[in-house]
Amino acid sequence: MTEKVQFVDFGAQEKFGAHLFRVEIPAARNQSVVIAEDYGYRGQENGIPRDEERVILKRPVWSGIADSARREFNDRLKAANIPTGRWHTGTNLVDRLLGKELCVLAWAAETATPEQFPVICSKWAALRPEERWWLFAMTVAEAGLPEDTKRGWRRALFDALSDGEKPATGRKRRPRPLDQDLFGSPLFERK
What we know:
single chain; alpha+beta; four-stranded antiparallel sheet; two-stranded antiparallel ribbon; 6 strands; 37% helix; globular
């Protein structure tokens, strides 16, 4: 008999030892929000730490991006028939892949002004999940700790996602058709 997987908060498995992200939201509105990666069972093995803080956000920054992340994640959780979540005071558990995506958004917004938050959130939402995962991998390899603000890929994320105007509401990029050849360029045609 297989045990049914239970989920909490934003798609995180309830079982002990799962690789996930924790979002610590303090009760005091003047304290920072901390996003940390928890390696679960893999932690403390082969030089992997138990967990690593990825970003510390001032409360106004968190308030500027939290709702966009919640909406995006809940849409995806609904599509996968997993219970949706909401941000609450204390520890919020986030699925490993969604946590990576949240870090990309947080890194892009950590030095932004309130006027830039809607643009950053909109451009982040237009990225595909796999693009966000790739951006996380590139960023964490070079500048994935809280003290790495404004370095390397973290700076590039801010520059790429904060530049320009907010796209028209309700418009999302349409996915590429599955049958479209990625190498459809004349450079790759066989003769």
